[in-house]
Design goal:
This protein is mainly alpha-helical. It is built from 25 helices and no strands.
Amino acid sequence: MNATVSTTIFAVFMVGTVGLGLLAVRRRTGGGIAEWSVGGRSLGAVFIWVLMAGESYTSFSYLGAAGWGYNYGAPVLYVVAYMSCGYAVGYVVGPMLWSYARRHDLVGITDILAHRFGRPWIGALTAVLATVFLLPYIQLQITGMGVVVSTISYGAISLNWGYFIAFAVTTGFVVVSGLRGSAWVSVLKDVLVIGTLGFLAVYVPLHYFDGYGPLLDRLVAQKAEWLTLPGHGGDGAGGSGLGTAWFVTTSLLNALTVVIFPTTVAGYLGARNADALRRNAIWLPAYNVLLFIPMLLGMAALFVVPGLTGAGSNLALFRLVVDSLPAWAVGIIGVAAALSSIVPMAVFMLVIGTMWGRSVLSLVPRWRARQKGAAQVVVVVAGAGALVLTYAAPNTLVRLSLISYEGMAQLLPMVLLGLVWRRLTPAGGLSGLAVGVGTVCALVFTGHDPVWGVNAGIVALAANLVVALVVTFATKADADQRPDADVLARDSLDSRESLASLDARDSLASLDARDSVDSVDPLDSSHGIGVTPASSDGAPRSAASAD
């Protein structure tokens, strides 16, 4: 009976999720890849807030955060630290990337790099590299949702069916509705997440411990090791090894990386204006308060369900839920956790599709004028690939996930330094990137992360930056003849006037684009390089885009 009730509630919400995603585009037809991938650059502050919160608050928040709290304790707080610091960095970087992409009609991080360095193949190379680092996240969200579905159905739905449901529901709306559909589903997800975690924050301590006072007293008296760095086990054998140096370097690296992560950039570029991103950067840290709940309840589970080991520790929070709540409540909490997998998975798939449709397949003549269609095909292929590997070789992508964030961090010099410093050459940026990625792989796969107590990714990033600078100064300056205003990013506050005039021209340019798209070289237009003459402020005179 319990399984029937919880599963029915879950099924109703999943059908509603697909319907909500499709409803988001009921009045929007066509629009090209910009409408599909970045919501037509028209999302306001509220939609941007729920979308970007949805990307950061994943199934890790219900499973991994509770599991880390259960296993180690204090080290899991690095998530709150890096996200909060990352939002502060994003207050500056987000509007800068938004204005740069808007001026040049770009729709993703690979687009930005291809335009900055004037070489489409750099965008294609970046797309391939970023896909390697993003696919593990899709697989992990599929795995997380599978675990949630199987658990809340009291075992009635197997893990394998849970994996398939995750893939089917996400693909069902993201292919059609794109980023706008993800934003709409994020609204439902955020309502459920805030409601269910707020409830659990009150219910679990009262139900199991008669309040927070007795719970915290027991933690201090019996589990004090969990409340300080490096957490349970210390630095010794079997310990976390995640001490103060690791905490600081990981928080710093991730705070810088999160602002150029392809999914974050997709959120930036979907904004209606730069002010929406600034307000978003101010509001988002408030969402981090929710992260303390699964972390704390994971430690509370130490007294209720002791002895969980390995992957089983990730179910610490759900063991409390399933063992103490009625089936209908379990179903609703399970829906919130499932949507915490679906929303980020949708954005990951969307970004991979956009990168390939825009920067890789557009290099093939037959796909140049069909970027949106190509991107939608890639979304299905990427999701299906991650699903197949989840069944056939689950450890393959899980192992790659060890280097995902640290590997993505190696794009920092090319993106942030390249957009503000004209002297950085393609040879310098790519040499640093190769050294950084190679160093990360070498350190992680030989078991040296942390290395000397610090995050391996930041060691690789330091080597990356040094090599990029040395090679840049050892080679001739790039022969790119474009003016600085067309190559470098400007403070969006200084570019408001030019963007306002661009808005006025967009409506007329879009009409002209429909008639003249066949006459434009799609390969050039896919990267915004040399398509249209620039105005005196560096803004393009046309916003036509191929799709």
